[in-house]
Design brief:
The chain is mostly helical. It has 2 domains: 30 residues; 113 residues, Alpha Horseshoe (Serine Threonine Protein Phosphatase 5, Tetratricopeptide repeat), CATH 1.25.40. Helix 4 packs antiparallel against helix 5, helix 5 packs antiparallel against helix 6 and helix 6 runs antiparallel to helix 7. The chain is elongated, with a radius of gyration of 27 Å. It starts with 19 loop residues before the first helix and ends in a 17-residue tail after the last helix. The model has no long low-confidence stretch (mean pLDDT 82).
Length: 183
């Protein structure tokens, strides 16, 4: 007994029910999204996977810091335990996309690197890098922190103070410099 011939398929659809032009458009959209991701990675140059996922999340407006770790970092910061504060801030903002968190990271480097007789240039350089990161991710490039316990409440003030700590001037030899207060 001969087998019946299978029913012919319509010529305008593919096995999944998409027309050939719809499949091409879907493929073009996927290639475009992939190209945009590569361009974004090239432009941002993230160093960790957390920075990649945080950057993508912030692009879509869904990135948020871990409030518990941030509050823990603030507690350490105000008790002058700066290494612990930076560790907590790193947990709170692993992608480095929150301006306020990066401001406190910069401030912690500044406070730890500040000295009456001399400044630790390595810590001050880290502070400058962190405050630049905070300014870069802040809306409009302007950041004001409403913490009454801080002497420097804007990223611009903090950046200027850090930059002055990195410059060498004749006033650095002034013996009255040891009476200066840390901000």
């Amino acid at each position: 007994m001969p087998m019946p011939a299978p029913a012919p398929r319509p010529a305008s659809t593919t096995p999944r029910g998409l027309t050939p032009s719809a499949r091409r458009l879907l493929g073009l959209a996927a290639v475009g999204a992939y190209a945009a991701l590569i361009v974004w990675i090239y432009a941002q140059q993230p160093k960790t996977l957390a920075e990649v996922t945080g950057g993508v999340a912030s692009t879509f407006g869904v990135y948020a810091v871990d409030r518990v770790s941030f509050d823990e970092g603030l507690e350490y910061f105000h008790r002058d335990r700066f290494v612990e504060a930076r560790a907590a801030f790193a947990r709170a903002d692993p992608a480095g996309r929150d301006a306020t968190t990066q401001f406190y990271v910069a401030y912690s480097y500044y406070r730890q690197g500040w000295g009456r007789v001399y400044h630790d240039d390595a810590l001050m350089t880290e502070a400058l890098s962190a405050v630049d990161r905070a300014i870069r991710v802040a809306p409009g490039g302007r950041l004001v922190v409403a913490d009454e316990r801080l002497a420097l409440r804007t990223a611009d003030e903090l950046r200027a103070e850090i930059a002055s700590g990195l410059t060498r001037e004749w006033s650095d030899l002034n013996p009255l410099r040891v009476l200066r207060e840390r901000k």
